[in-house]
């Protein structure tokens, strides 16, 4: 039995530009998303995220390659695939503002042939899930952005999708609304829904995702857990320090090298006033000698220091910066 709910095998998508030349939006990408997991898809604008999501939502077909969803080959089985997927946009699209939340869900559920008792029970269940029961009979135009986005989730779950695609789902939401949204997504995944989402909020991506894929210029450049991505770039640890009584970059680097060896690279260098240098260096060795570190701190007049691993933002820039 295939453990993956989404498979892309060497998928490409080419567009014809106005001058007649071909523009390659996706270039033979391969991607697997495991059943019941949350998978983040990130990349710069124009990298191919939206094209990928449109293909998976059946709005576009690939120019070449194979897409399989829930074990069904997409290109020749569009109707069968559509029964078990849904697509939720960020922002405030796809809702009728002059209707109430309940009326919106009644309208969209009818498109899935839900009627009578089955329709009422499903709408009741979803309103409770997204915590809109108390305002279900108020017009959507009176809702906050967070409430509208929660209603979007309810709309996207009317057909009980086994695969849920989310495009920038928390865009424009305040922190509290975004956290409420993420809790709903976690709940869905815990109950077996497979979720693929795009976002420019890298902190959110790392917080939510079981695995992360980075796409750049139409190609997948990295994929795996956050920890695997950190390990792959070979910069497992860094030291960030504000050091007194050093007068220039060379002296600061010499100071670090004395304790950590020559296998370091400068990630950040800022001169402050009064012979104070702020340095951030990445270390190729994955273990820091406690004795060396203690000696460094005691003898270097450290004002501030910390040890850590590269953030997802640093990993993202590593893979997407040419």
Automatic annotation (TrEMBL):
Which Pfam families is this protein grouped with? ABC_tran
UniProt cross-references to SMART domains, sorted A to Z = AAA
Asked if the keyword ATP-binding belongs to this entry, the reply reads yes
Q: Which residues form the ABC transporter domain?
A: 6-242
Q: Which UniProt keywords apply?
A: ATP-binding, Nucleotide-binding, Transport
Query: What Gene3D superfamilies does the annotation carry?
Result: P-loop containing nucleotide triphosphate hydrolases
Q: Member of which family?
A: Belongs to the ABC transporter superfamily.
Name it. Vitamin B12 import ATP-binding protein BtuD
């Amino acid at each position: 039995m295939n453990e993956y709910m989404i498979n892309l095998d060497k998928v490409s998508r080419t567009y014809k530009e106005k001058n007649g030349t071909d523009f390659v939006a996706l270039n033979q990408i391969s991607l697997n998303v495991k059943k019941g997991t949350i998978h983040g898809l990130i990349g710069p604008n124009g990298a191919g995220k939206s094209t990928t999501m449109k293909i998976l939502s059946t709005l576009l077909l690939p120019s070449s390659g194979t897409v399989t969803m829930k074990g069904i080959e997409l290109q020749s089985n569009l109707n069968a695939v559509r029964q078990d997927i849904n697509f939720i946009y960020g922002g405030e699209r796809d809702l009728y503002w002059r209707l109430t939340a309940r009326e919106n869900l009644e309208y969209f559920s009818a498109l899935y042939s839900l009627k009578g008792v089955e329709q009422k029970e499903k709408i009741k269940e979803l309103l409770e899930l997204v915590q809109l029961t108390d305002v279900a009979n108020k017009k959507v135009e009176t809702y906050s952005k967070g409430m509208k986005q929660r209603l979007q989730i309810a709309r996207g779950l009317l057909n009980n999708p086994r695969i849920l695609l989310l495009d920038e789902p928390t865009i424009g939401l305040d922190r509290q609304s975004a956290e409420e949204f993420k809790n709903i997504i976690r709940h869905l995944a815990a109950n077996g829904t497979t979720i693929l989402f795009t976002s420019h909020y890298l902190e959110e991506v790392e917080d939510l995702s079981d695995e992360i894929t980075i796409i750049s210029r139409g190609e997948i450049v990295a994929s795996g857990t956050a920890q695997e991505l950190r390990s792959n770039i070979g910069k497992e640890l860094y030291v960030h320090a504000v050091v007194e009584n050093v007068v220039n970059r060379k002296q600061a680097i010499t100071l670090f090298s004395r304790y950590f060896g020559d296998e370091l690279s400068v990630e950040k260098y800022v001169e402050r006033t009064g012979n104070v240098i702020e340095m951030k260096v990445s270390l190729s060795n994955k273990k820091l000698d406690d004795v060396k570190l203690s000696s460094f701190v005691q003898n270097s007049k450290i004002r501030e220091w910390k040890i850590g691993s590269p953030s997802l933002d640093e990993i993202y820039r590593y893979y997407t910066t040419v």
